[in-house]
Amino acid sequence: MDRIPILQMGRALLITIQVDMHDQLALALEEDLTAKIASSGARGVLIDISSLEIVDSFIGRMLDNIAAVSKLMDAETVVVGMRPAVAITLVELGLSLSGVRTALNVDRGMAIIQQRLHDYEITDGG
Amino acid sequence: MDRIPILQMGRALLITIQVDMHDQLALALEEDLTAKIASSGARGVLIDISSLEIVDSFIGRMLDNIAAVSKLMDAETVVVGMRPAVAITLVELGLSLSGVRTALNVDRGMAIIQQRLHDYEITDGG
């Protein structure tokens, strides 16, 4: 298994990080994700990191990168499921993930994306 | 990472199988899932197997088991994202996954669960 699956749910894409990330995998994920955003027209990307016991600067940079690339393709990235201990460690390390939105769980992350779609439609329609 | 994460989305639970399954992991998943169904009151379980290039009798049995256990807890299991080659191999092996519902992708699987919730509410209300 050398790819992380990207699941489509309506206008959002969901990625669950379960395995240890390394350079190749992170690059493949970015490529797959951009292709999927383009082909599906998704407006939101949810990344679940509830499996991760450690988020180091490599993962932090990857999340930032994904968020930046998705934004250029007009999709908002929301990182969900961060463990409390991970949040504490991130702040201690000075990694505040400033470029990434976060939500407590998938439901709340999806609500953020739905809200954005809703706002977009109003702007679009008006 | 010795646990497969179970994500809650509304009244459904989503499991993405990304790693090679073995006995311990399958047992842990069953345990976690039943606990999560009980605590969340979920009525549906979506299992995405789009990452799997091979589904052998072990995985087949695990899926059957999960479906049977979930059913006892009044939650319907839908297996989604099966690759065409996997479907062909399963039939060749005589493993038809008769106890498990399948759907092409997460969206359709979710629709099945939503429909079931809808039917349930009508029955319940009447």
Spell out the helices and strands of chain A N to C. EEHEHEHEH
Return residue spans of chain A where pLDDT drops below 50 for at least 5 consecutive residues.
none
- Approximate strand percentage of chain A: 15-25%
- Indicate the radius of gyration of chain A in whole angstroms: 14 Å
The greatest interface here is: A-B, 23 and 23 residues
CATH class of chain A: Alpha Beta
Broad shape of chain A? globular
- Total helical segments of chain A: 4
* Major sheet description of chain A: 5 strands, mixed
* Helical percentage of chain A: 40-55%
Number of strands of chain A: 5
Number of domains of chain A: 1
Spell out the CATH superfamily of chain A: STAS domain
Distance between the termini of chain A: 46 Å
CATH architecture of chain A: 2-Layer Sandwich
Broad structural category of chain A? alpha/beta
Nearest-integer average pLDDT of chain A: 90
Spatial order of the strands forming the largest sheet of chain A: 1-2-3-4-5
Which oligomeric form is depicted? homodimer
CATH names the topology of chain A as: Transcription Regulator spoIIAA
Organism (chains A, B): Dongia soli
Protein name (chains A, B): STAS domain-containing protein
InterPro entries (chains A, B): Bact_StressResp_Reg, STAS_dom, STAS_dom_sf
Pfam family, one (chains A, B): STAS
